[in-house]
Amino acid sequence: xxxxxxxxxxxxxxxxxxxxxxxxxxxxxxxxxxxxxxxxxxxxxxxxxxxxxxxxxxxxxxxxxxxxxxxxxxxxxxxxxxxxxxxxxxxxxxxxxxxxxxxxxxxxxxxxxxxxxxxxxxxxxxxxxxxxxxxxxxxxxxxxxxxxxxxxxxxxxxxxxxxxxxxxxxxxxxxxxxxx
Length: 180
Hints:
alpha+beta; Outer Surface Protein A, domain 3; 2 domains
């Protein structure tokens, strides 16, 4: 059996979990509410103060869904209690970011500033014009928006300029002068 799938998801006291027909799970907590429908091969039950995920058969696809479903429900519970956060850094001369209304405006070496619409449910803060902080209760949405921001100007390996995750290590390459 799936090691992750077998573990029950504990429900904190300030969180309410509701399971409706068709594996429709609603998780409410102090930070908000998340809802998701899961695959019919998986059964989601609420036992005591825990959510238990069970599978209908032992096929490879069902085993994969078993652990995935448990992890997604756990992320929903963590999201409504603590939330998720991603931090990005801009490195490069003249690179800066700002929040304007519900748009993130990036000036990263192009002839024009790049404007990104901030998705509903996320909050974006910019500190010192070079540090971007993305917060939200949906882990998938936070990670996806951070990946979109990073993809606008990925870090290049020669000078290290671009948008990177906080603490990300970039392997520097030697330029033409470095070869002997």
